[in-house]
Amino acid sequence: MKSVFAFGHGYSGTHLMTQILKTIPNIDCDHERILPESPYALFDKYVGVYKGDLDPFKELGIQRKDFINGIIKNGKIFGEVNCMLGYFVKALDKMFNDSKFIFISRDPRTQIRTIYNTGGYNMSVFPDNFDPFWWPTPAKEDPSFEKWDKMKQLEKCSWAWNLYYDYILSELGKIDKNKYFHIKFEDMVAGRKLPELFKFLGVPSPNAAQIKKITSVKFAKTGTREKSPLPVWQAMNLQSHKIIRRYTKETAKKLGYDII
User: Fold this and answer.
1) Which of 29, 38, 183, 256 has its CA 20 to 30 A from that of 245?
2) Tens digit of each residue's pLDDT (9 = 90 or more) over 110-122
3) Sign, CA torsion 16/48/153/236
């Protein structure tokens, strides 16, 4: 393994995964690498990729190829944890064939709540000059395209959750299944499945005490911007349940979350 790419939708524990991967000997790993040729760490390109307007292989060639190859040439394992890498799986596999992928998923009942409560798709909770260019919108062929402007905030957050995971599952289906490892956020933060992850990567696993030390730290703060934040799933009203289920239940089931 010369490179490892990890990704999960926003608020899926990518900062924690970065710290986990940094325990690998001889790895150069960082979170959402910002470079002169990649000032937005691919956040400005993924929408064009998933809508079919941009070539993912070409964009990687511009924003990542030389940098990654430089680190590998210096004898290091390249590592990056970046949710946007999920949109470039097939291109990454083609460009860096001695690579492995880590796919992080999170239960929609908690992840969508976090996205909503931090202000996802609600411009009113941000400053006037705020530009959420990374918030995706439906492609023309998407069933939500025509009704997008009339959709409620929770619907948009739920749609975005489903878009990400549905797309990434499709991307992963294009590469050798032995090249990626799926780990749930819920297992990762509890320190579960990490020995299996390191075995998959073919590197030494930290001992139980090291894992506990890493997973006990909250690496990224999540602020609540909504004046009326969503409560936990058990306390949400039936309408919120219906919206989240409507947009996510099929993809959630594929990921191992039964929210029916």
Assistant:
1) 183
2) 999 999 999 999 9
3) negative
Q: Give the domain extent around 73.
A: 3-219+228-255
Residue 260 in domain: no
pLDDT digits (tens, 9 = 90+) for 222-232: 778 888 999 99
| Mean of the per-residue pLDDT values of the chain | 95
Q: What is the CATH number of the domain that holds 232?
A: 3.40.50.300
Secondary structure (3-state) at 216: coil
Give percent helix, percent strand, percent coil of the chain, each to the nearest 5.
50, 10, 40
Asked if the structure places residue 146 within a domain, the reply is yes
Domain count, the chain: 1
Q: Indicate whether 162 belongs to any domain.
A: yes
- In angstroms, the CA 66 to CA 8 distance is 24
Per-residue model confidence as pLDDT tens digits over 190-220: 999 999 999 999 999 988 888 888 888 776 6
27-31 sheet: strands from edge to edge: 27-31, 77-81, 3-8, 99-105, 180-184
Burial (Cβ within 10 Å: 0-12, 13-18, ≥19) of residue 169: middle
